[in-house]
Amino acid sequence: MNSLLIAAVLFTLIPLITYLIYILAILKPSNSKIHAPDTQPPITVVIPTYNESEVIEHRIKNLKDIDYPTENIHAIIVDDQSTDNTVELANKAFQKYSISGEVIVKEKRTGTNASVNLGVGKASTDFVVTTDADVTFEPDAVNNALGRLLSDEKIGAVCGELEPIARKDSFTTHSEKAYRDVYGRMCSWESGLHSTYCFNGPLIMLRKKAFSPIPETKGASDAGMALRIIRNGYRCLYESSARFYEYITSDMDQQRRQKLRRSARLQEATLHNLGLVSPKYGKFGLFVLPLRFVMFFIAPVSFFLAVVLWSIVLGNINLLWGTGVWILFGLALLSGQWRSNLISSFIWHQIYLLVSLVYMFKGVHIWQAIERKKV
């Protein structure tokens, strides 16, 4: 009994301490400052695509609508063997909205990471934006990201902040909104220490000289990009003023598939870059990356072991108490069905992380997108 109690306490402390560090960090007042760029140099916008016929024209039109000189924007669409008319619609949109652009159709489908490598490699400008086909930038998003990037030569990349858009309320959208509410503040705190690699892929502004090709089959493209840039001696920052919008699905199965893929690829990128745990990379190598490793790999296992052990320990005292642990767990898990809250979102996040520990070994660098809708 004593050994079970000690184990229950220890497994409880691991996720508790890990997330308490972040909670205390994000409760501190933010000293965020918007950096307006002194110049608007030519930029290349790289857009990996696969069956984006529903959104690609809207994506290109948005580049025309933002507060950035259209003549200083060149778009490169890297198409991953779409089976719809994405390529045709993209070429028409370039002409319709007078955007300089080109479409590169890959010889075979190799995934987003390979598309990013190809697109950034083809860019002829010093600054490159990578984005997705189904998002919409706020008018000042690119300027705010560029301003932050230009504020320090040691900054190699800056990512923007996602504002999720739900077409109808559901359990999945409640969970995602609660999660996103704190995600950005966590990444901003890591940026203040040194760097974050939990990037939002739909808006990344980078210095081309800081970029190195990312592994095509290892990890998420956005996290892999950030980790390579940090390895090259630069910082990677989260900029909350560079906002963009993305439709989030209300379908539970689609969200499950999306969450598992993202979690698995983020875990894979983390494992693949554990060599960055070193004083050479400052506070990122000594603190941020080790803390994220605990969060992604150790905390979810510890959390569910703690729930099981507490149900056993309390059940040995009184059967109703042991049963009560599972009742409380279930109520907390499902509470997001009625109202967005961090407890439900946290539990679901731990479930996704735990399942994706197995899922990441299945190879998910080529994937089927969720439903595409314009914001």
TrEMBL record:
Coiled coil: none annotated. The chain crosses the membrane at residues 6-27, 293-313, 319-339, 351-370. Gene3D superfamilies: Spore Coat Polysaccharide Biosynthesis Protein SpsA, Chain A. Pfam families: Glycos_transf_2 (PF00535). Residues 44-177 form the Glycosyltransferase 2-like domain. InterPro entries: Glyco_trans_2-like, Nucleotide-diphossugar_trans. The keyword Glycosyltransferase applies. GO terms for molecular function: glycosyltransferase activity. Keywords: Glycosyltransferase, Membrane, Transferase, Transmembrane, Transmembrane helix. PANTHER family: POLY-BETA-1,6-N-ACETYL-D-GLUCOSAMINE SYNTHASE (PTHR43630:SF1). This is Glycosyl transferase family 2.
